[in-house]
Design goal:
The protein contains twelve helices and 19 strands. With 430 residues, the chain is an alpha/beta fold.
């Protein structure tokens, strides 16, 4: 279905009801694709995400010689032909704006026994942090060249495998730098020790370590806080692996009843502590938002669940007092500068916003209508403000907010707006 650009959001005039089947986790799908490629037998991923980011990852694995069979109707991805991996000699890998694919494929190609691999993405990908991972892999013996700016895409990797050793890594700008290194470290010729030198989002690192264990890595990877020790090993991969529903995507539909009233079921969604994804803790944030006394400050640290901060920020104009969001400085180097972009769009909507390097304070003011939200090619802007647009600002069901470039949701949630509209239709009186 093609979407109007800009896309007017039709508000809900009745409380939301029904249920939403969430897409599979992007973080888990791309990690599982990488780990499946490192195994020695076919692996079927069930409940997988089919989106731009995962398709780029799968296409790159195919370019490297692996077989990846996709069945979108069944939501399955089957990885096989691991013995043919890296037999192509050379490959050009295009990762778009997919940070997981960029970091994971860089590490995978650096650990390959042979071949020349060129990796590139869209212009914004060339600005995203890669330096820490590149330097750590070079310290382990990788030959990685930067034809453009040092430490950034594009890259040219002349693979010759990894040696053992001790490396330091600052993953404060993206936990994916550490996750990528950890997943390929068992392929090195000798033991690898990774020492962290900066802050890292530990929920995502914990997800990676748990997934490595579920894909058969026998040795524990974490030796002590901030230090990870890995020895050469093969992944004893399972025949199949079930991908959890995406906890970041769940944040939009957890927030929707707060905007429209009503209730919404999310079959398969795992509440905080029940699954591998730290972003499920957003549900607890919403509980605190509902329970706080009117007029008091809601103060939330989003460092560990920063993919969901835009969801709270976008609906903050509807909350019963000011909202302070901290722990988000690293999101300035994601798909766009998310902190500055969110402050800019909320001000255009008439809100009072104080922006600092690591935080936003949003004080509700009367919402302005007729605003077209700029999404900066960032799916999370589109989806977050799409939820705000479901608020019936004028009490007439008339659209008052529109989303520019709604198609950017294809990155992780291609049918987001179709699903949102179907919920609105189901909530109308029979």
């Amino acid at each position: 279905m093609s979407l109007t650009d800009p896309l007017p959001i039709t508000p809900f005039t009745r409380p939301v009801r029904g249920e939403v089947t969430l897409p599979g986790s992007k973080s888990l799908t791309n990690r599982a694709l990488l780990l499946a490629a490192l195994g020695d037998r076919p692996v079927t991923l069930t409940g997988a995400l089919f989106s731009e980011d995962t398709q780029l990852m799968a296409a790159s694995l195919r370019s490297l010689g692996f077989t990846v069979e996709a069945d979108p109707a069944a939501l399955t991805l089957r990885v096989s032909g691991q013995e043919r991996g890296f037999t192509v000699g050379q490959a050009d890998l295009l990762v778009g704006l997919a940070g997981t694919a960029a970091r994971f494929l860089t590490a995978l190609c650096a650990a390959a026994p042979r071949g020349t691999y060129r990796l590139d993405g869209v212009p914004q990908m060339r600005k995203r942090p890669m330096k820490g991972l590149i330097e750590a892999l070079r310290h382990l013996g990788a030959d990685i060249r930067c034809p453009g700016a040092e430490g950034f895409f594009p890259l040219e990797i002349h693979a010759r495998g990894l040696q053992g050793g001790t490396v330091s890594l600052d993953a404060s700008e993206s936990s994916q730098l550490l996750s990528a290194l950890l997943m390929v470290a068992p392929l090195a010729a000798g033991p690898v020790e990774v020492n962290l030198t900066g802050n890292v989002r530990r929920t995502y690192v914990g997800m990676t370590l748990q997934l490595m264990a579920e894909f058969g890595l026998k040795m524990p990877a974490q030796a002590a806080p901030g230090r990870f020790s890995l020895i050469p090993a093969r992944y004893a991969v399972p025949d199949s692996y079930a991908i959890e529903p995406d906890a970041s995507a769940a944040s939009y539909f957890l927030a929707l009843p707060l905007v429209t009233g009503g209730t919404l079921a999310l079959p398969g969604w795992r509440p905080p502590g029940a699954g591998l994804q730290g972003d499920s803790a957003f549900a607890d944030v919403l509980v605190r938002a509902r329970q706080r006394p009117v007029g008091t400050l809601l103060d939330e640290d989003f460092h560990e669940i920063s993919d969901t901060f835009l969801t709270l920020a976008a609906i903050a104009p509807l909350l019963a007092g000011p909202t302070r969001i901290t722990g988000i400085a690293h999101t300035r180097k994601q798909e766009t500068d998310r902190v500055a972009g969110m402050a800019r769009e909320l001000r255009r909507l008439g809100q009072e916003v104080t922006e600092e390097e690591d935080s936003l304070v949003i004080t509700p003011r009367p919402l302005k209508s007729g605003i077209e939200i700029e999404t900066y090619h960032d799916h999370r802007f589109a989806m977050s403000f799409g939820i705000l647009g479901c608020h019936d600002l004028h009490g007439t069901g008339r659209p008052w907010l529109a989303i520019r470039n709604p198609g950017c949701c294809a990155k992780t949630f291609p049918d987001f707006f179709e699903l949102l509209e179907s919920l609105r239709q189901k909530s109308l009186p029979a």
